Amino acid sequence: MIFDLIKNRRAIFPAQYNDKPIEREVVERILEAANWAPTHRKTEPWRFKVLTGSSKESLGYFLSAKYEETDPRPKEVKARKIREKPKASAVVIAICMQRDPEERLPEWEEIAATAMAVQNMWLCCTSLKLGAYWSSPSLIRYMDEFFPLEKGEKCLGFFYMGHYDEKPEPGIRNPVGEKTVWLS
Questions:
Q1: How many CB atoms lie within 10 A of CB 161?
Q2: Does the pLDDT value for residue 1 go beyond 90?
């Protein structure tokens, strides 16, 4: 049932992934689900750059070097973690958003549509028992130095994916009633 799938979705981090690869057809299926997210004015602003193989390692080295270059007090432990995270993943998907060239709607709506596309991806990963994690480090502002971005396109983060062995911890949420006001 969809409610169970939503409640069971968890962030499963790259350190928890095993070495089992994810087939291209599975990634394509997950991206197809993303493509069916709601989109105001049908702008379909989501864009994806799929990194596999050595491109994941290149991403890790790029991000680590950029961290060391831009942080006034870089720490070797953090640089190493940044470098290793993509390699520990079976697939890394750069989540990008293409701004409507005519700016017919506010940017936040296109960011929200892209986030809904990512939620579709995450729910698919959950249903396929794949680990997934969306990270949006400050270093994403430099991604145009790593791969080409179209005019008006920006990187919103990375979607790390991989197979995992450990059972995820159950989620906890405060009651929705504490966050709801009924008006009549």
A1: 26
A2: no
Q: Specify the residue for token string 């602003």.
A: 45
Span 56-112, pLDDT tens digits? 999 999 999 999 999 999 999 999 999 999 999 999 999 999 999 999 999 999 999
Rounded to a whole number of angstroms, the CA Rg of the chain reads: 18
* Domains present along the chain, CATH in parentheses: 2-179 (3.40.109.10)
pTM of the predicted protein model: 0.95
Helix (H, G, I), strand (E, B) or coil at 93: strand
Q: Which residues contact 154 (CB under 8 A, 6 or more apart)?
A: 96, 97, 99
Query: Rounded to whole angstroms, how far apart are CA atoms 69 and 142?
Result: 12
**Quick one: tokens of 98?**
């293409």
User: Would you give the end-to-end CA distance of the chain in angstroms?
Assistant: 31
Strands (E), 15-135: 46-51, 91-98, 131-135
